[in-house]
User: What shape does this take?
Amino acid sequence: MSIGVASSPFAQRHAAKLRQARFFVWSFTRSPSTMLGLGIVLVFLALAAFGPAIVPYPGDAGGAMNLGNRLKPPSAAHWFGTDEMGNDLFSRVVIASRTSLWVGLTIVGIATLVGVPLGLAAGYFGGWVRATIMRVTDIFLSVPGIVLALAIVAALGSGILNGIIALSIVWWPGYVRLVDAKALALRNEPFVEAARCVGASHARVLALHILPNCTSPIIVKASMDMGLAILAAASLGFIGLGAKPPAPEWGAMISVARTYMPNWWWYSVFPGFAIYLTVLGFNLLGDGLRDVLDPKSSRS
Amino acid sequence: MAGTHIGRRGAMAAGLGAAGLAAGIGSSAAFELDGSRKILVYAGGQPVPVLDPHVRYDWSTRMIQQSVYDALAKYVNDPPQIVPWLAERWETNPDQTVWTFHLARNARFHNGDPVDAEAVRYSFERGLRLNKGVAWMLKDVLAPEAIAALDAHTVRFTLTRAMPSFLTYIPMWYIVNPKQVQANIANNDYGEGWMATNAAGSGPFRLRRFEPQSLIHMDAVADYWKGWPQGEHRRLSGVIYRVVREPATRRALVQRGEADLITEVPADDFDLLRDARGMKPEDHRGMTTFAITMNTTKGPTADINVRKAIAHAMDYDALMQIHNGAASLMTSPFPEQVPGHIAVPGIPRRNLDRARQFLAQSQYPNGGFELEYVHVQGLEDPRRIGLALLNALQPLNIRVNIVAQPWPTMVARGARAETAPDMVSVYVTPVTTDPDVIAGKYHTRAHGQFWGMHHLSDAQVTQWVEAARVETDAPKRNALYADIQRRVVDLQPEIFGMLANRRWIMRDYVRGFAYCPLRLTGEVDLHPLWIDTA
Amino acid sequence: MWAYIARRVALTGLMLFGLVCVTFTVSNVAPSDPAALAAGPDATRDMVETIRREYGLDRPLHEQFVRYVSGVVRGDLGRSIVTTRPVVQDLARFFPATLELVLLSMTLGVALGVPLGMMSAVLKNRAPDHLARFVAVSLVALPAFWFGILLQLFFSIWLEWLPTSGRLDLATAPPPHVSGMLLLDSLIAGQGATFGQAFAHAMLPALVLSFPCLASILRVNRAEMIEVLSADYVTAARAHGVSRLRVICVHALRNAMLPTLAIIGLRWGWMLGSTVLVETVFDWPGIGLYAVSSAIAGDFKPVMGVTLLIGLNFMVVNLIVDLLYGVLDPRLRAGA
Assistant: This one.
């Protein structure tokens, strides 16, 4: 221990931050539900990364067809059974996690990239800038995302890309709201005023003083939204506006599988469970992150 | 409705969690009762948004229209026949341009008015002037002024040219009561607003409750002028047509006996229900052709060798398997029930060697391109067929991009040759057996229609279609149609697919079901149905 | 106060206009020929043209926009191509069904969420608390459409306790139309059996729809309750011999009321939106099903109408909640 401290000026300089980080990790690992969430998310990420390599029939996700093998119940050869085209459901459910990961990351990514700068600008500059940005934001927030996304995808045509476009269009306003409130509170803080007094540019103040103080809630929201975005995309898939065949997608699978209930129950049960577990994982993780990073807001 | 007691089997379980309630279900009489008479419940997936017979038709709409209205003649039986209905008999002059119909004297509208020649004249005029729904069938040969009520029971139609198919359209023109329509006109609309949800007919049923998106309840007309074929004592009290969008729910309803008759049954469900106790299947060769239309004007499919290569690579067995065998492959562009149909020799079947030969002769000997395959959003079978196509074309190194689009978008794209997709899945249900309806698909005038998305321009076919349209000599006409069929197969504007069977599942106590291929997909003639409890 | 309301109403109008702009743009981005849908598959080109003229679809886009906006001001949302009826009439027919569902599931959410939240707080960190919290997270994560199908399967098809879909049994005539909400109308007409039927039909969809709302209410009430239980005045009250139950009921309930109200306000529009999924699963003839079937068919006027209706609802309910907040919490009144 003494060696570590003595030989590491880094550790000395950042002792406070390290202590804080250790506290985060400690309180994080103390909550079983958070760890469960983390575990689920890690499994999900691993499946998305290595799915095609570990599933027994990777070709079944790319439009293979084996009509002699239709709607077979779960067995040793097909753990989740087969679907109406004779494809292995296990392979398709696992590989569909890629679609979901991609959907979640892109939607949340675009929403953050659009929403955060707008929120910062609104909260920091105030006045007419804020009025304009927030009115437009409010318009989008006044309609539940799924309804607007439904209209957009219906107009553009179904497909994952169109689904992502639609959901991104309805997703960014949430970040504007979040960051605006935070930036508004921060802009009159003494350290911000001090920075401005010594002549720091707006961009510098925003980047160095405001944004870093907004990251915790953004991370928490992004983690929660990963799950919700995946759920929303699956919902579009269920309505019949999901991924283009033959690409596997959970919502679209349930949409087709619905016709095969209850006699071919496995067809819809497994994709549904996949959605449920994934969304649950991200939600639990988000909850845990919030308790650690942003304890004040953990009530709402 | 006072005094009408409607009892039903006790499936109502408002007392939640009352497990005991489940016990009695399934054993009691399944059909609805209205006094001592029975109500037949038919569950289908398609709503009836507009009832007006001159504005719209599709299978569910036509079924209700056929129940509340009568036409001059009616299609019955398989193979289909035209039998007199409101008209007792008719005659035509030698060149088939003047048609005279003599009406039945006892026909009455539901409100008691007689169905007279003026009503017939008015109905046809209304259909032509509205220029919607059925208008296309007759508008080219019949002017509204050319319909004359000679006396109370005689109507004469004078056509602008010979039209051998004239009579085949007559069963689809329903007769409305002019007095009721006139009483409900708003803004010069021929009563269109009112007629959308109300009926002014003389048919075997009258409307009791009309909820376009969910439920239509009709009462049988006790003293129907044409009588009841099953006998007055056995006729139903009425029919409920219920819109149930989910196939799984429809299956549950017929299993629980809450529905007596269902249609649009997925192939796997059908196999499951066919042999179940208390069920009776109806399985008939259909007339709806499924084809994959290819754009003959742009992209790789403009090359006839590419089209032929694709047609020879298509997995026709998969088409059958997707329907669990309940379909028949097309042997010609025409359905078999159409007079003049010939089984065209050499119509493509899967043969990869020939497919490769054709591809080698094309501008794309090694494939290496992608084709867009568009189908109507929400339809399952075309999506599966798209997957089969995707698989079938892999050996040719042709990729397929499966795209679902709403009907209006698809039609808007397909209307112009430049925007029409490479391949489109197209179902065509002919409304009559007249071959002109099908042959017209390959006429240049078909461009812009949904079945004309191939944008085929072949002077020879066009000329033959026009000649056959007015040819009144049957053998000559059939020879022309044989030429057309061979020529069209040779030009390969589409992959000729299959005709799916039309299928219903009913409870075994339902009697009087009569199939007629000229009804539209799920349409059932409700007039002769009855329920046998003996 | 009145000036505040006036300003909020004006703002709502402005936002509705914005929403009209958004939905109009959305419905015109793709080339589409709705008239072909109305005309039917066999229609000739001049028949399609007839329909196009009738619906004003032959006009240039900017003119269509001006027509639509001026129509909206007059309460005219255009005509649906599929049903051929004015969208406003269709909405008037379908909205009560949706409203009934949302109100019922709100009730369920409050009736289950408040007591569960309180129980969770009282038994903090014991097994029932963990279970309740896990259930709360699960309810948010469950895909409503999938779980709805499973419930339907279990209760309707397997156990046959509840009807599968629709609002009433087939042969049951609906009660005389008053509000369009069958539960209410059957009560007004004094038809107990019809009420029972309507309730049995609404049970499952309302339950599925209530889940996310139920989860939020549970969480808020738990948090409020924990805070109250550790507050000084409660300790004092307890010390003076006030019973624990009384403390919980009086203080905690009052404290939890405001946030619960806020959630109802927030969730209101959101639940109207979720009906898109739930109504599809349960064949519930409300605006959600109307929007979905129209969107799939490529008929956009109804979709725009539903969007506007939900947006309007959301804004009005938010306004009401803000005002109620002022009434219930005097501290906020000055600030408003």
Remarks:
- Chain B is about 25% helix and 25% strand.
- The longest strand of chain B covers residues 37-44.
- Chain B has three domains: 6-52+203-284+503-531, 70-181, 289-500.
- The first helix of chain B runs from residue 59 to 68.
